[in-house]
Specification:
Rossmann fold, 277 residues, alpha/beta, Methyltransferase, Methionine Synthase (B12-binding Domains), Chain A, domain 1, 3 domains, 52% helix
């Protein structure tokens, strides 16, 4: 089946089907100047696009695959306005920042990265898409109204160039009513320790996507310098897991004699608790 026929089956414009192929959403093999597609793959995509899951209560669940497809198209086209409207619509429908990060933004970038590895998307296009996602996540990380659960500090160590993961952590925390000081990436350990000593937060979150001996040393230096719970998030760990660990760590920190937990669930070494000023 050629791409034009596939587009007709899917009920979309040829250019839309072409963008799906480039984004890795529609399996296809390039033959000369065109593409050949397996009819079974096309039908699977068609069914997936129209699949809706209905949870108890009769309310329709979000079609994250379809929403992700829409976002990928916006990212490839560099259409920030369309992408922003999509996220605002989903938030108005009740999607939390955590859900938007885990179910929409991160999967969309993974799709594009897979397409880049397959030569369907240029590396520069992926960079532009990631930069656009940073602005989108930053925009939806506005603090919620109401009494905050506490103050959290989010930072990444020197050498950590990926700003988006820490932004996602900030958005997820604010969505759970945490007040957050987002320090960004490339933060020296000494600077972070001094900032924690000065601000006395209730929680420190370290975003590390590329673990190295230097980043391990950074995390160890921060965790052993304070009695504040220190959580480490990064590659292989979902934001949901991070937030669950945070709940455990902050609960443990309020019970005398119980150690806080690291982001990976291990007991974290730390100084003896000190009275807050």
């Amino acid at each position: 089946m050629d791409l034009e026929s596939a587009a007709a089956v899917l009920g979309v414009h040829y250019q839309t089907a072409y963008r799906w192929v480039r984004a890795g959403l529609l399996p296809a093999a390039q033959v000369g100047l065109g593409y050949e597609l397996d009819p079974d793959d096309v039908e699977a995509v068609r069914q997936e696009r129209h699949r809706r899951r209905s949870p108890r209560g009769g309310h329709q669940a979000t079609d994250w695959w379809g929403e992700g497809t829409e976002l990928v198209q916006s990212l490839l086209c560099g259409d920030e306005g369309e992408a922003r409207q999509q996220l605002e619509r989903l938030q108005a429908e009740g999607a939390t920042p955590l859900a938007l990060c885990e179910m929409l933004v991160a999967p969309a970038l993974r799709r594009l990265d897979i397409s880049r590895a397959a030569g369907l998307v240029l590396p520069a296009e992926l960079v532009v898409a990631a930069d656009l996602c940073q602005r989108l996540v930053g925009a939806m990380a506005a603090p919620l109204r109401g009494r905050p659960r506490g103050l959290a500090v989010v930072a990444s160590p020197v050498g950590e160039r990926h700003r988006l993961p820490s932004l996602m952590a900030t958005a997820a925390l604010r969505g759970c009513r945490w007040r957050v000081q987002h320090l960004g990436s490339d933060v020296p350990a000494r600077d972070l320790i001094e900032f924690v000593e000065e601000t006395l937060p209730d929680l420190v979150v370290l975003s590390v996507t590329m673990p190295t001996p230097d980043t391990d040393e950074f995390c160890e230096a921060v965790s052993t310098s304070t009695s504040v719970p220190v959580m480490t998030g990064g590659a292989g760990r979902s934001l949901g897991d991070l937030l669950s660990g945070i709940d455990q760590a902050t609960a443990a920190a309020t019970r005398p004699g119980l150690p806080a937990l690291r982001g990976d669930g291990r007991v974290m070494a730390g100084r003896a608790p000190e009275a807050r000023r």
